[in-house]
Amino acid sequence: MDTPDLDRFGSRRSTVYAPNGVVATSQPLAAQAGVATLRDGGNAFDAAVATAAALNVVEPTSTGLGGDVFALYRTADNDVGAMRSCGGAPGDATIEAVRSAVAETESVEPADAAMPERGPHTVTVPGTARGWEATLDELGTISLTEALRPAIRYALDGYPVTEVIAHHWAAAEDIFDHANAREAYLFDGDAPTVGDTVRLPQLGRSMERIADRGADAVYEGDIADAIVEEVRTRGGLLTREDLAAFEPEFVDPISTTYCGTEVYELPPNNQGLIALEALNIAEELGAGDHPIDSPDRVHYFTEALKLAFHDGHRYITDPEYEDVPPLHSKAYAAERATAVGETALSDIDVGVPNANAEDADTVLLTVADDDGNLVAFINSRFAGFGSGLVAGDTGIALQNRGASFSLDPDHPNHLEPGKRPFHTLVPAVARFDEDDWAAFGVMGGFMQPQGHVQIISNLVDYDLPPQAALDRPRFRYREVGSLAVEERMTDTVPTKLARKGHDVSILEPSLFGGAQIVRNDRGTLSGATEPRKDGVALGY
Question: Is 362 annotated as catalytic?
Answer without folding.
Answer: yes
